Amino acid sequence: MWCARWGAVRAGPPRSVRLVDPRPVGWGLAFGDSDPLLLCNTAAEVNSLLADHPGDFTDYLREHGWTGLARGLRPARPARRVLRGPLHRGPRGGGPVRRRGPAHPRHGRLRHRRGRRAPHRTARLGPAAHGRCGRRVHRRPPPARPRRLRRLHRPPPRYLDSPYPADRISRRLRPRSRVLALGTRQSAVDAAMLLGRDGHRTTMTSRSGTLPAVRWSLAAPERELPPLERIAALDGADPLLAERLARCVVEGVRLLGGGPLRAQTSAAADPVRRLREETALVAAGACRWPGVVLPVMERGIELGARLGAPQRQELLDHFAPLLSRYLTAMTAVNARRLLGHFDSGLLRLAPAYPAAVSFTDGEWRVTWPGQGGGRTERFDYVVNATGFRLPELYWNADGTALHQDRPPRGSSTALGRLEADLRVRRRPGAAAEDIWVAGVGTHVRIPFSNHLRNVVRQARDVAEQVVGKESC
Fold first, then answer.
1. Complete DSSP assignment for 22-52
2. Is there a contact between 1 and 128 (Cβ–Cβ < 8 Å)?
3. How far apart are CA 2 and CA 462, in angstroms?
4. What distance in Å separates the CA atoms of residue 195 and residue 337, rounded to the nearest whole number?
5. Core vs surface per residue 127-160: b (16+ CB within 10 A) or e
């Protein structure tokens, strides 16, 4: 989420907010898809959109007939409805929120006149922007196209750059097709479930060749875990920082019970067997490690904010194999669905990543690595389920415009100078602009920048600055 306030600073709250959005309010990637097959893999109790009211979301669901457990799962769809109340009430002490749409500014640009004699100021923004002038644009972040497909300047009609929204699969794929799904993490798990439900024969492939770990849901720990609280206070200059951080996590897992982490996970080399064994561990109640994930993320965010960018990235790279399996673990519900597709023969996991991919005569040809040039296999469709690129933001050469993802000639990065106030600056040491960045856009400074509870807190802090509660 990009947050921006345009124009001169004025005392008091905004008089009104206007939203311009090509899609319904709240219809984002995580919570907007209406397909009931897709579940959020976090517990309802940690999905409040109000920083000061952590039970707000579960209260809302109860009021509307939901009977699930606060620590349990729920479909992605209901989350967007909780936004409607605040949107109709408007900013605190200010005017209403007016929605204008569906609409989409040309080329994803916003133009704002800063006074009669001032020139237009143009910004390439996305996926969302908020301004003092009240305009907002919401765009889907660009997919992370794998290197094998970057040579295809115009992707063929039998290529889907994402499995979302889910109805794209049912609308665009012919019945009982042969499909190559690129990726093996959360987006690929969703793609495999959607494809299997429709009867397509799917092959999943990724460079790692591994599937996420399995858990019931991602909920807050039932009690305090002192070893995890120590993470935020670790010395960033300590050469043994990574080892000390790992020890804190291990001690936290032990306090939750269930034995060491190795007893709560599978060590099987075959990914499908590992999936099966870890699903059985969750069903037996022997999987307690998910209780450390949220506090590790939140204390990790605090620690990361004190580290320099190179050191922060080095730490993330060091723990990348663990983060990719455990932070992005799938729910046991989805694990059982995948196992059903594996057992039926509709789904398989490729043992390697393609050596070459081409589209010829209306079909995809994939060459797998091997002696003598490898084996070639044919597919009807390719679904890219590798996720989305992290957003960037660039100043143009004269500092009068902001561009997302495609830097113009002579540009400089804006996010690289992001400080604790989350405000954009034109150059090191320059005064802060009336432009804020929140959510995944803060990845250059904040590890786990898409952690919802952290994003909600960021949004609150930005809102307080915009209405003048804190010094601007």
1. SS-TT--TTT----TT-EESB-GGG--S-TT
2. yes
3. 11
4. 12
5. bbbbbbbbbbbbbbbbbbbbebbeeeeeeeebbb
Distances (CA, A) of 54 to 235, 268, 350: 30, 38, 42
Tokens matching residue 235: 């010395």
Contacts made by residues 168-177, CB under 8 angstroms, sequence distance 24+ = 169/194, 169/195, 169/198, 169/383, 170/194, 170/198, 173/198, 173/200, 173/380, 173/381, 174/380, 175/199, 176/200, 176/201, 177/201, 177/380, 177/381
Is 197 within 8 Å of 22 (Cβ atoms)? Answer: no
Nearest CA among 256, 326, 311 for reference residue 286: 256
Which residues is 394 bridged to in the sheet?
403, 413
Q: What is the pLDDT of residues 94-106, one digit of tens each?
A: 555 555 444 333 3
* Residues facing 413 on adjacent strands: 394
| Spatial contact of 225 and 249, defined as CB atoms under 8 Å apart | no
Q: How much is the pTM?
A: 0.81
Q: How would residue 61 be classed by pLDDT, with cut points 50, 70 and 90?
A: confident
Q: What is the pLDDT of residues 135-180, one digit of tens each?
A: 222 344 556 656 666 566 566 789 998 898 888 898 999 999 999 9
Structure tokens that stand for 378 in this block:
């044919």
Q: Which two tokens stand for residue 148?
A: 């094998």
Share of the chain above pLDDT 70, in %: 74
The tokens describing 260, both together, are 């060491």
Q: Rounded CA gap, 432 and 427, in Å?
A: 9
Give Cα separations from 132 to 11, 115, 120 (angstroms): 12, 14, 15
Q: Residue 472 is which amino acid?
A: C
pLDDT > 90 fraction of the chain, expressed in percent and rounded: 40
106 CB-contact burial (10 Å; exposed 0-12 / middle 13-18 / buried 19+): exposed
Chain mean pLDDT for the chain: 78
Give the residues across from 432 on adjacent strands: 425
| Long-range contacts of residues 353-356, Cβ cutoff 8 Å, at least 24 apart | 353/205, 353/206, 353/207, 353/209, 354/148, 354/180, 354/205, 356/148
